Amino acid sequence: MAAAAPLSLLVLLLLGPGVWGQTDPPRDSLREELVITPLPSGDVAATFQFRTRWDSELQREEVSHYRLFPKALGQLISKYSLRELHLSLTQGFWRTRYWGTPFLQAPSGAELWAWFQDTVTDVDKSWKELSNVLSGIFCASLNFIDSTNTVTPSASFKPLGLANGTDHSFLRYAVLPREVVCTENLTPWKKLLPCSSKAGLSVLLKADRLFHTSYHSQAVHIRPVCRDARCASISWELRQTLSVVFDAFVTGQGKQDWSLFRMFSRTLTEPCPLASESQVYVDVTNYSQDNETLEVYPPPLTTYQDVVLGTRKTYAVYDLLDMAVINNSRSLNLQLKWKRPPGNGYIHYQPAQDRMQPHLLEMLIQLPASSVTKVSIQFERALLKWTEYTPDPNHGFYVSPSVLSALVPSEVAAQPVDWEESPLFNTLFPASGSSSHFVRLYTEPLLVSLPTPDFSMPYNVICLTCTVVAVCYGSFYNLLTRTFQIEEPSKGGLARRLANLIRRARGVPPL
Amino acid sequence: MAAPGAAATDLEVVRGKRAALFFAAVVIVLGLPLWWKTTETYRAPLPYSQISGLNSLQLRLMVPVTVVFTQESVPLDDQEKLPFTVVHEREIPLKYKLKIKCRFQKAYRRALDHEEEALSLGSIQEAETMFAEPSEQAEGSLTVYVISEHSSLLPQDMMSYIGPKRMAVVRGIMHREAFNIIGHRVIQVAQAMSLTEDVLAAALADHLPEDKWSSDKRRPLKSSLGYEITFSLLNPDPKSHDVHWDIEGAVRRYVQPFLNALRAVGNFSVDSQILYYAVLGVNPRFDPASSSYYLAAHSLPHVINPVESRLGSSAASLYPVLNFLLYVPELAHSPLYIQDKDGAPVATNAFHSPRWGGIMVYNVDPKAYNGSELPVRVKVDMVRVMEVFLAQLRLLFGIAQPQLPPKCLFSGSKSEGIMSWELDRLLWARSVENLATATTTLTSLAQLLGKISNIVIKDDVASEVYRAVAAVQRAAEELASGHLASAFVASQEAVTSSERAFFDPSLLHLLYFPDDQKFAIYIPLFLPMAVPILLSLFKIFLETRKSWKKPEKID
Fold first, then answer.
1. Where are the transmembrane segments (chain B) (predicted)?
2. Among candidates A67, A480, A484 on the partner chain, residue whose Cβ is nearest the Cβ of B274
């Protein structure tokens, strides 16, 4: 018995590593990352990236088993023999002049490009089916991609991942600029994330905030990459990226201090347990040499410096997997504050809601003397609902006048007056001081002519054509069926009588 | 001057009259047909009478049964009469327009030498392995061996035996009415192994009125060309549980053999996924007595919907998806048990939803929590899981346990998990279901096209309809002659063709214009053109009548 016990222990020890060795090492991994970039204009850009890497040859395996890689996309790759897939859905336009260079720009609307494997025989058919399936997965109108808006670029859009040959006949590219991106596109995109929107950085992806932004771009990039340094076999990489630009005036209400809660109305509470890396980067680069541009709270434990897009940048790094980052306060709410003195001004902007409330833009500006200040507002012409047109729609629609309230310095210092004593015309506005007086000016109302559809055009055309045809037909018919008789003129016509009258007056015999 | 003038006028009047008549003639002969032709919708002819004939189709399902008599199974003088054929036919009462008759065609013959040899062996298993050597029997046919009354092949108290292949054994009898008695026993066994009302009623569940069958029968999966099977591991709490399952191995070992056996029914594709943070839609109740959580039977229907949105649609094919979910409850809700209607925990801790799939709750062994820190590594016992899922898969396909005749020995199931005659039963049910579906589709298509005269019927739609009708008739013939496999193929073709015709997008291009709009368009053209013609016709008519009356007056 005494001999048996150590023996069994030995067997267990031998078995132990064997059992553990049988289970494969995780063949897929997830990394997530958020970069917060304060933009020169006072807006803030947030770029999420979720990268799922799968060490598997999707095309070779018949029965497919998915862990972190989403099944829907994996099936696409193997069914349509995709080599690369890039899909982006974007609302708004990245304004490079104000915001600087983006990490990854995308055109407004939907953009889809894909490389097929060279085993595909009918690329156009696969492309058509692929766009239809993607349209179902992402609830976007990608099914409108057809031969009329598909091109095969020959020089641009080279494969981003591992590629043997670049025969561009296996590339297809299409853009749908009209595509409107909305919540229904974000929800399926979020479903592809392993942690859904329950943990990790994806907690911040709340639709009602992400779409109240000046720029929203979500994308899916699938490409093959090298599995290791030797690059003997390939892995599949899925990158889901989402960039948004929060507007300083709409979201930030004119103040330039930002926090995660203010941007996303959420804070980070826990890392995604499936992620092997989960980090938040904040761009704290000093642009103007003086050492106080941006203050980040809580202070970062580490910083990261690198040359990004041609400029040297400094990032404050927060590692969510590091217990200390979250444990102190149960949640991480990054706060960004500009240290430079706030500009002397105040802007309040309340955007309009269609058929609910109008736009309101209030600006408090100090104008230098003898200067010209121009405030211009861009607007888009839109078609109204057809019952909303006034009886005379071509007259145009009025935009109410803008108001200018100003304190104008007086030329002569006025005496403080007693309100009850002085004439009524002088005491309408309260005098704010002796050296200035209050003026309120109104501009002209603006008359905007909106596009007016011609409601009755088709029927008019029909009626007109029919009338013309009917008139022609009628005279033709009359000409053919009526009997015409030559009537002997009894006294001649009016012309003849007139002529005779004149002849008589002239003394010439009548006709 | 007056006479030629009057003559000329008369000539003119006649010419005008002729012109008016010619106009009217041109309008009627040329204009109306032209208008009719240009506004007409193209409608290819359809076999309406044949489609309505399908409704009163009589289905004869023939089951060829070979009855083999060994020596000493029946009296000698009876053996002299062999071989001969007996037909046993009966109608299956269903409240359905399709009349279904079941016909057992029993071919009686004497046993061959090697069969005698096999049946004289000691045990039924050995006999079976000997029979397994020759080639497989055709789908749908059965062979019943009649052995002597006192044979030791079966245990003494057993009268019959049903094997895993298309084979059964029945005890014979030494009696004057031997053939009658044995024939009755054979029919009993053959019915258990082939067609029963239940199977057909379940297959036709969609087409039968609600009252009789469908309320208590489980509805099997609808017939389709293929099926997608998705195994999903739901891990709502990855912070506490690090769950691993060897799904590749389990599919290879347990699921593939079963699906290979079912290959005749359709194409199968299997995949699996792991979903994190996917929770059930119902909050489990806490049971203080056993300090466990439970899901009551009445809340189970609400479990599926929230999970379904995470499962993801199958992007790659249009086949119906069968979902099998393995749910590892979160730490805060474990252990979790499913209760049945009486409040007792379900032994398998699983339930299934017809035509959707199955869910199994897999509780983590509480010992695993001791000492180790979170997350706990959980290795799923795939044998236990696959047992449940395969049983559910059988149920979902409508492979029910057979109703055995009394005193019948039932062999254990084959290693694949399905017996050959169970497969035949499935094929029969599917064929009948396919025929019913195709008939219904064709009938409603014909009704729809007959009712709405504006729908364009293209030639390819019409050809699909013809093909479907032909396939239905061919399937019915094949069923009547006992060729199950080809009948099933034909019935599948019938369904495919009829659905393709029914869902053809060209039928959607309905040229629908309301009548008032039609008139608004037509009147500005037709009224000014028609009025002069009608007026002159009326005038001509009046004049002609006058000229007819005049001569009468003179007379």
1. 19-36, 519-542
2. A67
